[in-house]
Amino acid sequence: MFTPFLSFLQLDFWADIVLYKVLSLVIILGLNLLLLRQKIIFRTSFGWPSWQKFVFWDIVGCLVAWQIFTNRNFLDILQASVIGTIAAVPEEYLYRGVIFGGLLRAFYLANRGGTKRNFLYCMLLSSLAFSLAHLSNLPSQGAVATVGQMIQVSGMGMLLAALYVRYGTLLMPIFVHFMIDCLVTLIHGPYPSKLNGVSDEATLITVSLIWATIYLAISMWVLWHCHDEEGFMARLAGQAIK
């Protein structure tokens, strides 16, 4: 949508990608507030038991990040943080907040209730949309890398949707998305490449399938341990933005 405009401005890589993401978020926010009016749940209702698990995994993530940071300088960390932020915030707002939340609301109102099957349908549809959106990377990184990325993010989308339901706040998938993109950027660098650091096309697809399977397995575990799906869907269903 913004490609002709950004091409006209002739910005460098960082200015181009930041401006693109900011404009995307502003338009998504505007469309949701004015037309879709889909409620986005940010307020957390975490009790201490939930926070214990959150803090534990946060520490694990920091330890992993520290191992990578020791081989990186401050600029690398800053660039990875920028990539993580500008990817996580608008994408989670759109795909988990608006699309996934809207699908859940529609299923809830149509069926007068919620089941794990309905959650799975909505997770699959929103993850498919999330995956297809990455086709936009085709010109910059090539077909094989793009297909591999789409496979990975389809599983990642399932996990992020499950986290939204499990914790009842969009802040959790935003945080996890940020951590994933930040770590990937630290490992492979911020600039797109044909095979993203993998020397063999078959290996890239295989690795992508493995990661998608891991994400999917974790998402099913998270969803299985959700105990208030009905309450979450009810919160979304009563949600005209006032």
Automatic annotation (TrEMBL):
Give the matching Pfam families.
Rce1-like
Name a GO molecular-function annotation.
Answer: endopeptidase activity
One GO-annotated biological process of the protein: CAAX-box protein maturation
Query: Per the database record, which ranges form the CAAX prenyl protease 2/Lysostaphin resistance protein A-like domain?
Result: 77-182
Membrane-spanning segments: 17-36, 118-136, 142-163, 170-191, 203-224
The family database entries (InterPro entries) matched by this protein are listed as: CAAX_protease, Rce1/LyrA-like_dom
Q: Which UniProt keywords apply?
A: Membrane, Transmembrane, Transmembrane helix
Q: Which PANTHER family match?
A: CAAX AMINO TERMINAL PROTEASE FAMILY PROTEIN, SLR1288 PROTEIN
Q: Which family does it belong to?
A: Belongs to the UPF0177 family.
Record protein name field: Immunity protein PlnI
